[in-house]
Amino acid sequence: MSDPNQQQLPPGWAAEWDGTHQRYLFIETATGRTQWEPPVLSAELQPMAPTSSPPPSNVHHAKRRQYAAGQTQAYYGTESTLGSGGGYPAPPSQQQQPNQLFTPGLAAENQFQQQQQQQPQLQPGQQQYYGGVQPEPEYINGPQYGQQQQQQMGTLADQFGQMNMGQKGLRLYTTNLLTSPPDPRELHNPPPEIVLPPNSCISPNPSANADPSYQRCTINAIPTSNSLLKKANIPFGLVLTPYRSLKEGDEAVPVVTDTVIARCRRCRTYINPYVQFIDGGNRWRCCMCSLSNEVPQLFDWDQVRNAPGDRWARPELNYGVVEFVAPTEYMARPPQPAVYVFLIDVSHSAIQSGMVATATRTILENLDRLPDEDGRTKVAIIAFDVSLYFFSMPPGTTDSSMLVVSDVEDVFLPKPTDLLVNLAEARASLEALLGRLGDMFKENHIIGSALGPALQAAFQLMSPIGGKIIVLSSSLPSVGAGALKNREDPKILGTTKESGLLQAASPFYKTFAIECSRGQVSVDMFLFSAAYQDVATLACLPHYTAGQTYFYPAFNARTEDARKFAHEFGEVLAQPIMLEAVMRVRASKNLRMSSFHGNFFVRSTDLLAMPAVPQDLSYAIEVQIEDTITAPFVVFQTAVLHTTCYGERRIRVVTTALPTTGNLSEVFASADQVAIATLLANKAVERCITHKLEDSRDALFNKTVEILTAYKASMTAAGAGASAQLAVSENLKMLPVLVLGLLKNVGIRQSSQIPPDLRAYAQALLTSLPAQLLMPYIYPTFYSLHNMSPECGTVGEQGVILPPPLPLSSERLERHGLYLIEDGQTIFLWVGRDAVPQLIADVFNLPNYEVLRGGKTTLPLLENAFSQRVNAIVQKTREMRRGPYWPHLYIVKEDGEPALRLWALSCLIQDRSDVLPSYQQFISQLKDKVNGGNY
Amino acid sequence: MVFFIIMFSDLECDYINPIDLCNKLNQFVLPEIGAHGFLTLLFLVSGQWVAFLINAPLLALNVNKVRLSNHMYDATEIFRTLPAHKKEAFIKLGFYLVTFFYYLFRMIAVLIAEGDA
Asked: Which domain of life does the protein's organism represent (chain A) (predicted)?
């Protein structure tokens, strides 16, 4: 038995060899208590807590320099378990034998040899550094990979294996939905912890598994067989946002620059932290198909310094999200420049609403922010009403000439050159043109829109290169190809025929989308119409070309609309987009990606084509278990091959490893309610389009019933019989309320009042928003402002402190209160009818409630603390999430305009609203169904 | 139909991309429907009631498809609807084979009857 001092002992314990009994005596140093049994840590701490960390010597800092101290600390355990002070306290035994301390970072050869000799008896000590999770990092900086080390690795692995035998999976806590109301704070909890088996990861880095904001699975412990999954009845899928924007404080994605890309020969998996090195480090075993592959020779060679490199420091072995710079084999053609073609509607309605003026001003202001690091970005502007207006900007001049094409039946380009110009070269003429564009069409009274021909022209212009078409349109396309009819009919809203309005009316937009996808052209739609514009049909184009739809109903530049649009449009322009991308998700054996949801074109069974990838779009993929999984853990790897907007071919690889389990309770305990809700939203929208809205609502409800029934049958004592409770695990507690939120969302809600345009837009959002934005969209946040505590709205450690969110129920609304309800797209400031004049004066600078007007507004920033705090909260709400959205602020008076009031109240989804049940009713419906058993 | 089935399995094995597949298949969809319609019409005109009744359901199905304008293969939906398309192609293949032998049998029967007379 090895020295237990070197092994894992909880803090405050020491071991002493007892000669008479020939075994160790364990002493708790603080109390003097002694015992024979080795003290154990609590189950949660065991896998991570470093019970005896190395003394904070310089050597160690040098070795672990790539990780900030805070990070390591956060990963290895909290300070509280380690005792006071910032550093790690060293256990007494180690301080007594400082010469035995293993210092892997030392580069000097002789020291390394010393370590080599010492290592055998030092192995147990190793566990203390890495908490028993990662066996290999002691080879960091190791100059060779000898046979001796292999043996050590083996023994080490065994030891770790034993040590973690007692490690428990996630524990299941059952709650009763009837007695525990949903708590909005739980939505912000991280997904259930991923407890990987020991030895699965070769990196000690906490980011070896991709962050859930990049990729998350609905179940964090994969059932080993399909029958087990059927028993749990939880939808199984991945929710991914591979191209996530980086907010302040986010770590940038590490880049592998030396174009050494190790991939499995058979399944083409990229090397990741979950592979195994075998054969003295010369080969690696693929974690998906377990084929042994050769390690590329340049893997251990630092090409920048031209010296032997350290493979353990390579980013692809340490991070779940990495980017490879791709060599020429990954290019079908040299990297293309970024191309932006703006299609601007200049018909009467567009000019009248001020859209053209706002748009040109925004483009002008954001020319600098357009990604153009290498000076290759190209821009073209085409205006259209019932004819097309091209603008030719010859290089070297500052003026532009307008070319009118009024033959929209057979579109042609009036000039072969100078229409698509280099941004840097034609900057002056572009600025002049953008400045004049609004005035040029000021007197335009033409009504109608030749959107289809304009799209064709733009496509002709850019098809040799590919890029992005940005459409700004404020009327229904009426001329030429792709003309649409007004098919809005209030009589069929709320009936079974309504889903027809959500399907594409004309095949043009689908076939054109396919053409675009082939030509690497992506389309973004900005729609502004006050009247019916057939968003459902137009949204097809962004949907299949990996763009995004933005809708500003009844846009009017004289209101706050201008600011919202300018902000969102500016953000979209500034996004460093990925071009010419294809995405593929690979998974371990016996897992198959069965269906795909999101904005892209499925080019083959598992290849998703995306001509341009905007930031912060979410995709959902359903996964099937084909056969029994025998591996202890499975790996999902998303690879996006793309061209960056500054002309570099890259591959972004997102890897997630998840443990498998044969235990049903672990499956339930590891279910991720946020991911499930996201997947369900995607499935529900698809069902709306292919079937009926009614079907999709039923499917959502039935799925929830199925999950709850499965839980009740297998996890509670009631079994199949009736039960007074409605049990579900703690981590799925919010699922029913999220489903209720989905059922009440504009995109799916049963109602005969929702215009099809709004519905189609809501559906486009439901399928493309990442979880961070989708959660508030289906479960809005609700704050009470008039009685918030004094620190709310002030700047705290993590930025502005927000008040605690309230459950979404109008019983929380008091008559004298001020409330904020927001769903990520809109913010409502609810003012109770008995609000005291002081409150109104403080926030709105008005004498009393009567003179306050409801509607879109900007809050004045006043010279009082309360106003500043409210403004800070609104600001924070607008900024805290990723994505370009800038929510409008509406003031809602309790006795104000009924439409606005109802809109705000519809966000309070736990209430009853006409035909839709309240949360309590919904829960009891669920309970009846679950107990009834037949549905 | 055999061609259709081969193309569908090509798509599943990633030998062909959905855009090409749909372009290739779609040019045969209307001729097929037309030929079938013409044949059925011939049966009706020539008073072959049994043969006409056998073909009538398929004709009705085709007419309905054209009316709802979903007779063409849609490249964006093809992966979602692939199993259904394959099943349909197999059933049609079987149907055409059976009817072909039925026509052959009828023809021979008529020829023999004429020879007797």
From this structure: Eukaryota
Contact by Cβ (8 Å): A674, A187: yes
Distance CA A589, CA A604 (A): 19
**Strand pairing of A222-223 and A283-285?**
unpaired
CB contact under 8 A, A603 and B12: no
User: So what CATH class is A339-490+502-574?
Assistant: alpha beta
Map out the domains of chain A as residue ranges.
13-163, 339-490+502-574, 780-908
Q: How far is CA A704 from CA A136, A699, A700, in A?
A: 44, 9, 6
Set of chain A residues whose Cβ sits within 8 Å of the Cβ of B68: none
Domain A339-490+502-574 and domain A780-908 have a common topology: no
- In angstroms, rounded to a whole number, what is the distance separating the alpha carbons of residues A922 and A928? 10
Q: Do A605 and B19 touch (CB under 8 A)?
A: no
Residue where the block lists tokens 């024979």: A36
Handedness of CA A113, A114, A117, A119 (dihedral sign): negative
Q: Which of A602, A627, A568 is nearest to A885 (CA)?
A: A568
Task: With CA atoms as reference, report the closest residue to A470 among A568, A401, A399.
Answer: A568
As a whole number of Å, the end-to-end CA separation of chain A is 60
Positions of chain A with pLDDT lower than 50, given as ranges? 1-6, 41-168, 934-935
Radius of gyration of chain B (CA): 17
Cα gap B29→A17, rounded to integer Å:
87
- d(Cα A476, Cα A485) in Å, to the nearest integer? 8
Class of domain A780-908: alpha beta
Give the residue on A whose Cα is nearest the Cα of B23.
A511
Q: In 3D, which of A852, A874, A871 has the Cα closest to residue A861?
A: A871
Q: Does A332 touch chain B (CB under 8 A)?
A: no
What pLDDT was estimated at residue A519?
A: 86
Pair of tokens at residue A882:
């990723």
d(CA A606, CA A268): 13
Which chain B residue lies closest to A508 (C-alpha atoms)? B74
Q: What is the pLDDT of residue A32?
A: 60
Q: Output the six-digit token pair for A552.
A: 């500003």
- Closest-CA residue of chain A to B72: A507
Report the percent of chain B where pLDDT is more than 90.
5
Please tell me the distance from the alpha carbon of residue A189 to that of residue A830, in angstroms, as a whole number.
Answer: 27
The position carrying tokens 């999200």 is A321
| Beta carbons of A595 and B75 less than 8 Å apart | no
DSSP per position, A506-544: -THHHHHHHHHHHTTEEEEEEE--SS---HHHHTHHHHH
Asked if A847 and A841 count as a contact pair (C-beta separation under 8 A), the reply is: yes
Distance CA(A865)–CA(A849), nearest Å, equals 20
Read off the amino acid at residue A99. N
Q: Hey, what are A289's tokens?
A: 């198909």
A518 touches chain B (CB under 8 A): yes
Query: What distance in Å separates the CA atoms of residue A153 and residue A199, rounded to the nearest whole number?
Result: 11
Rounded to a whole number, what is the distance in angstroms from the first to the last CA of chain B?
A: 39
Confidence of residue B98 (pLDDT cuts 50, 70, 90): very high
> Chain A contacts of B80, Cβ < 8 Å?
595
Measured at the alpha carbon of residue A387, what is the angle toward residues A382 and A388, in degrees to the nearest 5? 20
Antiparallel, parallel or unpaired: β A321-325 and A307-308: unpaired
Q: Do B76 and A601 lie within an 8 Å CB cutoff?
A: yes
Distance CA(A595)–CA(A685), nearest Å, equals 14
Q: Enumerate the β-bridge partners of residue A650.
A: A325, A642
Q: Give the other-Cβ count within 10 Å of A602's Cβ.
A: 20
Chain B closest-CA separation from residue A620 CA (Å)? 14
pLDDT for res A280: 78
- Residue A589 corresponds to which amino acid? K
Chain-chain contact of B79 with A602 (C-beta, under 8 angstroms): yes
What's residue A847's pLDDT?
A: 80
